[in-house]
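Fold this sequence, please.
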Amino acid sequence: MGKKILIVIIALLNVMIFSTNIYNFEYSLKNNSRVAETKYFKFIFEKNLSYIFPVLNKVVDKLYENYEDFYETSPGSITVFVYDDVDFVNSFAIPHLNIIRLYVNQPDSSIGLTENVRTWLPFVFSHELNHVFYGNMRNKYIDWIPYDFIKKGLLSMNWQPSYLHEGLSIYMESKYFKGRFEDSIFNMYLMAEIISNKYPEYYLGSGSMTDKWSPAGFNYMYGAIFTKEISEKYGEETLKKIIQDMNSKLFFNTIKYSFEKVTGEKWKDFLLYIKVKYKNLYLGRSEKGYKDNYKPLNNAFHYTGNLNTDGEKLYYYGEFENKIKGVYKGDEYVGNYRKFSISKDGKLLYLSSITNNNENRNILYLKCDCPLSDKIIANRVRSFNFIDNNRVVYTTIKNGFTTTYIMDLRTGNKEKIISEGYYVINNFTSNGKEVYFSANFDNTTDIYKYEIETGNLLRLTRNQYTERDLFLYNDYLYFSADYEDNIYNIYRYNIKNKKLEKITNHIYGTFNPVIIKEKLYFIFYDENGYHISTLNLDNLSKKLIETVEFNEYIAVSPLIYHMKPDKYSKYEEKTKYNYIIPLVYNNKIGVGYISLSEGLNYGFGAGVLTDINNTSMIVGGYLNLYTNNFILSTIGNEGIYTDISISKDFQFYLKSKYYLTISNNLQLHNISPVSNTFSINITNNPYYINSIQLYNYNVSMNINNAYTSINISKPFYVFSFVTTPYGYYDTSGNLVLGTSFSKKIWNPDISIFDGKFRFDNLYLTGNISYNIPFHKTTCGISLIFNFTEFYWANVPIPIKIIDFSN
């Protein structure tokens, strides 16, 4: 009986995993996807990204063989999808399906990893390739299972903790490229975490969701700490043995158990060794004069940053406890933005991310008194700033390439100042005559200057460091750089006398300098995130830096790759994944066959179900093209029952962001309609307080054969309670006023077996309503115990306290 239950669970998990598509089918058709193959890989990419295959082809098969040696396993052929359908930096892998998904945009300096801008795709590929190999490590331990669909199901159940998935991926990326082990930002996060009294918190990076804040993810941070320290202290072979031992058993091994078995040492002693090592590093920095005693200006923390000014007031993106995340002017909330710029006369530019048809686009807006929406300046924008009150400079991205423009806001005319190429610009600052900017053209991030009148593009620095967060004030160029001890601190360069001075000396890092009325505002980092601080320019402790050169070099043209799409065959998405699976549906059990397309954009299946007394057949399919379409038919003694569902999600911006979902569900008996429900749901301006998402309002409407209904709700955050009053009306006579509420009342984060099982938190939730026409009151209050099981699964267990209705 236990084996049968296990098989059912495996089947259900497979269905859940296959419920989303890997890329946008519509986008692929529109952009004529191409396909190319190597010894171990099949690459699928849009026509305008044909330059990517020769770049990756130089390294991918060799990386495969290196990983094969490290893991002593072979996952088989791997499919790699590469598309330009998002404007953020990301990638992912689905290990048990041998799928890697790459996006083409390179990172800017705020993310780190800027030593890989030119080699970004091979670098990020090396990270995702590790997920596939590590996710297939158990192949050799479950070869005895006769059915491939069960083996893949077992691999899909993620018995491996995320902190090792990400830690080993960081280990491999750093082994073959300049990965996070060498990144100053990432190492700043690690040191602050280890020195803090929160250490060790690796169980929070097991894989399941947590509402605890981390600057780079507990899984990435602790995974990197463990793989780096184990390999350096005991060697790579010991690291391999620990990983192999952990994966030799499906259910019981943990990193503590395997570490102690392989090394013969105590896990707690190893954790203490790491603590002492970083504490000594911290004390060494203190002896060199580094400080950690800057005073915060306010209570902002976490990802607070992007300091800006109109010359009079400080603007910034702020995150506070129990306050809305967004842009602030001093203590005044301005709007739900993150990336923005302010001019001397108070004009506001901001970036909004809109997703439609699975395409994510960054749109640059100018805030205005326009009746419906703010003014669109440009699409697919990454970095931007005001030159003066009437001109802006910005970059756009397309096909992995960046182009830089200047636009006159009065006329809308724009001029291309840096041609399309493979580069990243981090930020701009200007005095109206020159534009200074931090940019990466060749895997080093340096300072550049563009002369508006002459059109000359000059490179001012050429070194192995990263200069970022430029701010021009009088004759000084202020910026943050990691010149000394790989720690970011603030420097200023005198444009006239060519002298460079260091003006902060923080032990972790300082960033984002802004000058307002002879005061320096900046952010510094500690274990609780970024904080705003200020110093008087007259009282700065200045240190002359003579080891970094500033000169004026003629900047070279950006790298550009040439397209050769006709060299590659056109891609047609066909079915690839075929499984016979156990089924559980409507209290019946049975067996079914599913066939899914390579990109999971469509699929179909059939099965036979029985409860001993009756037997029925189900047939179904889905297609994600223009709309999300699903059909399921059940064939039995009473005829054919069919459900047909069509839905579409939209996002649009009218002064604030709107989310719209339109759907229709039709039910048939044989060929006669039984019911039809048309639904509209709209949500305005989602925003966050702490880790809780709220919104301005939500309206949903349903129209079916029997009645029409409408529901309106608006949440509030009061005394740590999320309270959502709502009103419901339908044409059958119901008029309901009510409120739901939720509050986290305990956050124990109790972990056993290194995060494999956790007691995360306890919520009090409830709903109280009154149906006016029928004089009916309902009240339900529950406790929700939230657990983590097998590293990845969030499991809520509700217990009713009150369930009342009169």
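The two ends are 43 Å apart (CA to CA). The chain has a mean pLDDT of 91.
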